[in-house]
Amino acid sequence: MTLSLVSPLVEPNAITQQVNRVIAAVRIPRVIQNVNATTGAFTLAAADVNGASSVVTLRLTGAAPTTVTLPTVTAMLATVIDPEDGMTWFLVVTNTGTGTVTMTTNTGWTVGGTATVATPTTRWFKVTITSVASATATIDNMFGGIAA
Prior knowledge:
six-stranded mixed sheet; 10 strands; 40% strand
């Protein structure tokens, strides 16, 4: 076999295709931060908790104790890129308001552990898509009570 310095061993287009496949397959970790200053009870938007990144941080700055309802799992899944059963990410909720925040479920959710966030503290939750087909997910308290 004779090597030629004029022609490449692999076609450049084939290399580009391989690189594009790797980029599409790898989820690059990133952090999304959302801030909400609502003072009364409200429902989070799907983008407030979605898994487009490895960590989603939500800073609640409302002035009174409040109830925060998760979006429906169906709405959340609509914002997740290529959702899969078993996909997980962290939701970090920081409460810098003046009262305790209580996270409540919506259609499709199961909560594991404590779902309250005192002030001024941060609580880490792990969000897991349990079934894309049936639009179900869990949100499990990992740890919390960390001073904000």
